[in-house]
Amino acid sequence: MNADSANDVANAAPAPGNPGSSEPLSFDYAQELDLADPLQEHRDAFIGSDDPALVAYLDGNSLGRPLQASADRIGSFITEQWGSRLIRGWDEGWLTLPARIGDDLGAVMLGAAPGQITIGDSTTVLLYKLCRAAVAARPDRREIVLDTENFPTDRFVLQGIAAECGLELRWITPAYEGGVTAAELEAAVGEHTALVLLSHVAYRSGYLADVPALTEIAHRAGALILWDLCHSAGVLPSQLDNWQVDLAVGCTYKYLNGGPGSPAFAYVRREHQESLRQPIQGWLGSDDPFRMGEDYQPAAGIRAFTSGTPPILGMLALQDMIALIESVGIEAVRSKSIALTDYATDLYDGVLAPLGVQLASPRDSQWRGGHITLDHPSFREVTAKLWEQGIIPDFRNPNGIRLGLSPLSTSFSEIWVGVDAIHQAL
């Protein structure tokens, strides 16, 4: 990839901690950052990291790369467990896998004590379950607070629940490049608020919400709050228990590398598990599934929030990414994530800003998750061209290219190649 276009403006942006003497916007500088990166060695653990046809993968916040360990685990499961043990596998650990993986997820990166997280269903289904249970637990309150910039699924699910239950939606319209602030939430909640639904990291802008402050505001109003962790789980640490979070939902195919359509997770704070009643009453969530009783009685604890047979194959790969993050440390993952997004922002300043591209994400890493979004009217066409070249960012309506930087599999060199290709296309 030609380095001339970036080198021409090499002095236009500050260096994000120069490890050597190369110009900050040069490809050589990106390579020096890779050599100085203590997590760079883990890229080799991901399948496709050495694929010459895939020049730069910048969409790890939509679908993470698979780990070789996951390929080995799934192959072994098919031949040695499914193929050999068959139905006996349910009695030999499969049925308890959702809660076991949930406990690991809580311990390694979510700050949740055991018995509060389960794996299963899609994000959409889990959002419905927990939101529907939350509003039913506040029958004297008729309002749900949410924001206009949240992911469509979150908004659509709550629109459906509001119509189903005769509730009113109270909308917050945050800054386009930001997210919901404490002042905005304070103005929206009140004595009629049953539930607040917000995202830890905004799917488009990458804005990182102040979870403890916003949670406290919801609680002062007497409301429950549910946090969407889809764009934060696996890329930055959470402290759900310490933050007093009531409910949370997140997917596992982004930074947790569970694979296409891998099941989501649900967190239900222990103190709410007996009082909240989820609406999809399946056999596995009953107190004694194999009794095959006539009437539904919910199980004790987090299992009450499950419904049907757990998707065992779909959750196998998740275990390997949790183990990798545990070995590295979620704080180290967050540090690398900040370095990647800072570097991408520096390249934007020096190479893309002069061409009229707008930064649609927070500039301060304190308020930014693991991705940045850049806006330009030509970016729909530019994204299609980049994909043809084996450079894979994400396009988000109406005119954004989203650079999703997965810390354990994305290199600084890939970011340089991606930004340089955008520059050349413009």
From TrEMBL:
Enzyme Commission number(s) from the entry: 3.7.1.3
A GO cellular component annotation in the UniProt record: cytoplasm
Top-level EC class as recorded in UniProt: hydrolase
Start and end residues of each stretch annotated as Disordered: 1-26
Pfam family of the protein (one): KYNU_C
GO MF term (any one): kynureninase activity
Biased composition (Low complexity): 1-22
Modified residues (N6-(pyridoxal phosphate)lysine): K254
GO biological process: anthranilate metabolic process; L-kynurenine catabolic process; L-tryptophan catabolic process to kynurenine; NAD+ biosynthetic process; quinolinate biosynthetic process
Binding site for pyridoxal 5'-phosphate: T123, T124, F151, P152, T153, D154, D228, H231, Y253, W283, T309
Cofactor: pyridoxal 5'-phosphate
Source superkingdom: Bacteria
Pathway info: Amino-acid degradation; L-kynurenine degradation; L-alanine and anthranilate from L-kynurenine: step 1/1; Cofactor biosynthesis; NAD(+) biosynthesis; quinolinate from L-kynurenine: step 2/3
Record keywords: Hydrolase, Pyridine nucleotide biosynthesis, Pyridoxal phosphate
Catalysed reaction equations from the record: L-kynurenine + H2O = anthranilate + L-alanine + H(+); 3-hydroxy-L-kynurenine + H2O = 3-hydroxyanthranilate + L-alanine + H(+)
Sequence similarity: Belongs to the kynureninase family.
Quaternary structure and interacting proteins, as annotated: Homodimer.
Cited HAMAP family: Kynureninase
Known role: Catalyzes the cleavage of L-kynurenine (L-Kyn) and L-3-hydroxykynurenine (L-3OHKyn) into anthranilic acid (AA) and 3-hydroxyanthranilic acid (3-OHAA), respectively.
Name assigned to this protein: Kynureninase
